[in-house]
Design brief:
globular; Immunoglobulin-like; 2 domains; 8-stranded parallel beta barrel; alpha/beta; TIM Barrel; 6-stranded antiparallel beta sheet; about 25% helix
């Protein structure tokens, strides 16, 4: 993070800045970045099987205002429904796992003794079915109205240059993301200094408590800090760069999750180059408007998830699947189980099967974007290539946002780019069928014609 701070009379000179023109495309620049990252960046200790999962299902028990959407006693049955769809991962969102924007003044893992006992029993039942079960936890934010403020947070909150509390407020989007709360209802939200030794120890202790309570994996909301802290009593240089502190505690927290369960993992919001060495799977609200293919190409070892609401985003599923993303699924803003949308549940089941059957030559290979691949289609289609050594896999996802779509897709593959010849191709479809394709020779490789329906995903295996 480059935010140099100058005291009166100080000067600052930047590190050398290199400019290297080239006559290639964006891959040439990305390859240089990948080569540099290879000198220091290391991938997280992610369970190998996670990349083959279709995704995880997000569900409210109680939202942060205390409204109940899912009875805890129903969780084992919901787990059965997820397994029937090929989903092995559940993320439970609940008011008792928060202090920020929370009804009442309770701290983490606090509710009535009866409800917490019921939740613990429900989590045990879900685990017995083989699911990974996580929960969303925001470690860095709390509010002045919460009991935790006086007990621990007030001495750890970030401070401005003038010694004032650095407030961070999201109260106008609480719960329903509608701006129905005004400044009269402000709760005094503040971000805690992640360089503070007390915060770091508390964060690791909370991680232990969550795992001991019954969660196997964890969704760390906002494992970052973009600001600096000027409090001289926090034990860091002044100013203290907040993200450095985040990296310091996220690393051992992720290690605790892995040590607790070999199949467990951490999810984090908004990937960055530093904590991506420890967080296994990332969540981002805005992948639809970003160059997800560029990120995937530069850091193919870093797993990403695409937020998909069954009510809004069915046209985005194809691209997310083709990119090898896990699907971060919910129904109507986390309010309903997947069975509330039977057609979506059936679609996810088909995609889970397709991913499992083709993982060896797609998501278990190296993401290569569209290097050496040309795609011709009248309808919008996402197509991405994976290099698995003896085979190449091409994942296709039709992504029309209207009632029309589908048709024939022409794939032109430059086999010389991969330094070997490919002579056969098979088409794997959602329904489980496998069809032989007839490659046509081109000057530099082969071309294939693939029929695809609206919103259909398919995988081409080339050998």
């Amino acid at each position: 993070m480059h935010q140099p701070f100058l005291h009166p009379g100080d000067t600052w000179t930047s590190d050398p800045v290199g400019i290297a023109p080239h006559d290639g495309d964006w891959y040439a620049t990305a390859d240089r970045l990948r080569a540099w990252l290879a000198t220091w960046w290391t991938p997280p200790q992610t369970p190998p099987e996670l990349k083959t999962h279709i995704g995880y299902f997000n569900l409210y028990a109680r939202d942060f205002m205390g409204r109940e959407y899912t009875k805890l006693v129903d969780l084992p049955g919901i787990a059965d429904d997820l397994l029937a769809c090929g989903i092995w991962d559940l993320c439970l969102w609940d008011m008792s796992m928060a202090t920020y924007l929370r009804a009442g003044t309770g701290d983490f893992l606090e509710d009535t003794p009866e409800r917490m006992a019921e939740m613990s029993a429900a989590l045990a039942a879900v685990r017995e079915k083989g699911l990974q079960v996580s929960t969303l936890v925001n470690y860095r934010l709390t509010t002045a109205k919460n009991r935790s403020w006086a007990e621990r947070a007030e001495g750890q909150v970030m401070k401005t240059y003038h010694g004032a509390t650095r407030y961070e407020n999201w109260s106008t989007c609480r719960g329903s993301f509608g701006a129905f709360l005004n400044s009269h209802l402000d709760e005094g939200g503040g971000s805690l200094c992640q360089n503070h030794p007390g915060f770091q120890q508390w964060a690791l202790d909370l991680t232990d408590r969550l795992l001991d309570f019954g969660f196997t994996s964890l969704f760390i909301d906002q494992p970052f800090e973009s600001s600096v802290c000027f409090d001289p009593d926090h034990g860091h240089p002044v100013p203290g760069y907040g993200h450095a502190g985040a990296v310091e505690w996220v690393s051992p927290a992720a290690a605790k999750v892995h040590a607790h369960d070999a199949s467990a993992y951490t999810i984090g919001e908004n990937a960055d180059i530093f904590t991506s060495q420890y967080i296994d799977l990332w969540w981002d609200w805005q992948w639809a408007s970003k160059r997800a293919d560029v990120f995937r190409y530069i850091l193919p070892e870093s797993l990403q998830s695409w937020i998909l609401d069954a009510y809004e985003h069915q046209h985005e599923v194809g691209k997310a699947f083709a990119l090898g993303f896990l699907l971060s699924l919910n129904v109507r803003g986390l309010e309903l189980p997947i069975t509330a949308e039977p057609d979506v549940a059936a679609r996810i089941k088909r995609l889970a099967g397709l991913r499992a059957r083709t993982a060896a030559f797609t998501v278990c290979g190296r993401f290569a974007d569209q290097r050496g691949l040309k795609v011709e289609s009248e309808s919008p289609v996402a197509a991405y290539l994976y290099d698995a050594g003896e085979a190449l896999g091409i994942i296709l996802g039709e992504r029309s946002d209207n009632e029309c779509g589908g048709g024939e897709i022409t794939l032109v593959l430059d086999t010389a780019h991969y330094g070997r010849q490919f002579t056969s191709a098979r088409l794997h479809r959602e329904d489980g069928s496998i069809t032989l394709l007839q490659p046509a020779a081109t000057d530099t490789g082969i071309s294939l014609i693939v029929p695809l329906s609206r919103w259909e995903c398919a995988v081409v295996e080339v050998r």
